[in-house]
Amino acid sequence: MRAEELNRSVQDCLKTVWLAQEWSADPVTTTGLAQRLGLSPSTVSEAVKKLTAQSLLGRTEHAGIVLTDRGRAVAVQMVRRHRILEAFLATRLGYAWDEVHEEAEVLEHAVSEKFIARVDALLGHPERDPHGDPIPRRDGTVPPATAVLLADVPPGTTAVVARVSDADPDQLRRLGEAGIRPGTELVLGEHLSRAVAVTVGGAVVEVGVLAAEAVWVRPRP
């Protein structure tokens, strides 16, 4: 199924279910989905019922709300559009990494698959967006997203930043100013009561607890 066959609200719902499962093993609930979409639980509950009837969503005892194969195909198309557009805005139009998400949210519904394919080729088929999230390929496969939360890494570990959540633009700005971006090497220091100390480029930076839960890293052996 092509994303263009569905309206924007359906595209957003399917994409959001996929994103909720990308970096977390927690079940996707109606309440959690409503929070992510900024809608009431009752509205989301009705939407889930309709999409289940259309064989785009389903429910399981352990995973909660899940995508069917048809639903996943649409969700991955939307994620691909979003992340390619973010890469384009950041690398070709000079947008800061804390600005691209909102622009891409609007643009992803207005462009065609042909346009996205052209932009993808123009950028050299990037595998990651500006925040380190993997960009799904045109065939629907997704590069592996293997990393662990910064907050879970023990002191003394040398790690490379793999991904930073784009959920909070202000937090992205602060982390960027501290030099914490995908590809940055850092050394984990002491876990303080309200922060994690990390060494970035020879400077010690205190990363707040909430920020440490928005940064994923790959520890070096």
Automatic annotation (TrEMBL):
Domain of life: Bacteria
UniProt KW Repressor keyword: yes
Sequence ranges assigned to domain HTH dtxR-type in this UniProt record: 1-68
Keyword Cytoplasm (UniProt): yes
GO cellular-component term (any): cytoplasm
GO molecular function terms noted in the UniProt entry: DNA binding; DNA-binding transcription factor activity; protein dimerization activity; transition metal ion binding
GO biological process, one term: negative regulation of DNA-templated transcription
Gene3D superfamilies xref list: 2.30.30.90, Iron dependent repressor, metal binding and dimerisation domain, Winged helix-like DNA-binding domain superfamily/Winged helix DNA-binding domain
Primary location group: cytoplasm
Compartments, record wording: Cytoplasm
SMART domains: FeoA (SM00899), HTH_DTXR (SM00529)
InterPro entries: DtxR_MntR_Metal-Reg, Fe-transptr_FeoA-like, Fe_dep_repressor, Fe_dep_repressor_sf, FeoA_core_dom, HTH_DTXR, Iron_dep_repressor, Transcriptional_repressor_C
SUPFAM superfamilies, A to Z: C-terminal domain of transcriptional repressors, Iron-dependent repressor protein, dimerization domain, Winged helix' DNA-binding domain
Pfam family, one: Fe_dep_repress
Keywords: Activator, Cytoplasm, DNA-binding, Iron, Manganese, Repressor, Transcription, Transcription regulation
Family stated for the protein in its record: Belongs to the DtxR/MntR family.
Assembly and binders: Homodimer.
Designated name of the protein: Manganese transport regulator
Species for this entry: Kocuria turfanensis
